[in-house]
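sorry for the late reply, my laptop died twice this morning and i had to redo everyting from scratch. anyway the thing you sent over, i finally got around to it. pasting the sequence first so we're on the same page, its 217 residues, then the predicted structure underneath. double check i copied it right bc i was rushing
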Amino acid sequence: MATTNTVFVTTSLFKRLVGLSGDESQSNDESPTVDGRIGFDGSLEDSEVIGRSPLSYVAAGESVSSFVGKQIANKLAEYGLEDIEPDEWYPLEIPLAMLYDMRDEYGGVRMRNMGQNVPEHVEFPPELSEVDNALRGIDTAYQQNHRGSEIGSYEFQQEGPNEGIMICENPYPCEFDKGLIRGVAKKFADNPVEVEEVGDQCRSDGDRHCEYRVEWL
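ok and here's the structure:
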């Protein structure tokens, strides 16, 4: 599963999204902060994300509403991420700070909706057709689009013909991951998909990982 290159964000597009003229769009580039907001305890010092990923977040936000898309673009621009090239690498803390800001300001439901829409803006291998393989492919795509010594992972463990457990041990918001898992499963399932958080740990409570039971009925 590889993210698509079709979304491209330029400086002028950011200005139109947030309604700024040339002078007004000049900012002091706030420093992104994720310390104390994630349970994942890996170091993000050398962690980077390829441009296709934050571009897909902008597109996923637009799928929720034009307002959400504008807010995502605005947050990325505030942190200095404006002219995003799909194949360039950027500090992972920037899109992470944007996601946590969006979660804190607009709530978990909107964050889940955004995560669920991300698979609609990525390109899947044509041979991929089964839900279980698609869920395993989340980690493959994650490793391809992120780099660094401690970026974490997604681990899918199948427990039956139509169910399994996804263990998310990475720095992304747990609400975002829950939506992402559901969105990937829905793309390949013929029937409804249920995603429920299970286990005794949750990153939103400061723990290292979250576990989700996934069922495609």
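Residues 131-145 form the longest helix (15 residues).
thats about all i looked at so far, will dig more tmrw
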